């Protein structure tokens, strides 16, 4: 793992990725933030040594380095998922690379379904805590202690100071921002009615297929983290309709400008 991380990092440095301060992971249907970045360098995932390749049609597959709100950032335009056949170590490998490049803060976005029926599609949820339902841990491999503390503390996986700043920005800009618990499942199938009921019982406010592995590794590496879910559908088990993925992507695109505002204004103050 250390050899792979070194190879990937050295390649990106040779391409002009120069000491980014902040890493950003863009979720499903959430690529418009790139338009706000003053791009300095970019690399396709399939050109970066040891990198996985995005296989989901609405994930671009590029690592972008540039300036956003006056700060140097590295942006994942497209992420990896367990449902693509990747291991949790593959899924989180880019977080390790971004940390080696120099980031101290990781901001994550995702598209999620609203389990809490007080939350509506098109709204945003700031993740306050999470439930890992992906069946394993990205830290469960031999030699992990060479990269950080094996028994990583997860009592507060999302940075309370950054989250408070995001909430204040939302209030200032009249953006409706819920706060809640995100459950991460394997997918790619959507949930059954019984599964939605279970998720509500165990305390989830939203459900998706990403984010938690990256957050676990970010905590393992000592990064400050924050994550926002764009709620793209409402998961009411008593009135469940077939899911239309095209409509989910459209809803993500519609809600994304508010997420961009939150991230841009936050980055100005970090």
Question: Top keywords for this entry?
Answer:
270 residues, five-stranded mixed β-barrel, alpha/beta, Rossmann fold
Any overview of this molecule?
This protein has 270 residues and is α/β, with parallel strands linked by helices. The protein has one domain (2-269): 3-Layer(aba) Sandwich (Rossmann fold), CATH 3.40.50. Helix content is 31%, strand content 26%. The chain is built from six helices and nine strands, in the order H-E-E-E-E-H-E-E-H-E-H-E-H-E-H. It has a five-stranded mixed barrel with strand order 5-8-7-6-9. It is globular and about 55 Å long.
Helices and strands, with pairings:
Elements: H1 2-14, E1 22-26, E2 38-44, E3 62-68, E4 71-77, H2 88-101, E5 105-114, E6 124-133, H3 160-172, E7 177-185, H4 193-201, E8 206-208, H5 212-220, E9 224-234, H6 245-269
Parallel strand pairs: 1-4, 1-5, 5-9, 6-7, 7-8
Antiparallel strand pairs: 2-3, 3-4, 5-8, 6-9
Quantity of strands, as a count: 9
* Fraction of residues in helix: 25-40%
Strands of the widest sheet, in order across it, are 5-8-7-6-9
Per DSSP, the total helix count is 6
Outline, from the CA principal axes? globular
* Structural class by secondary-structure content: alpha/beta
Radius of gyration: 17 Å
State the gist of this model.
By secondary structure, the protein is of the alpha/beta class. It has a single domain, classed as Nucleoside phosphorylase domain (Rossmann fold, 3-Layer(aba) Sandwich), CATH 3.40.50.1580.
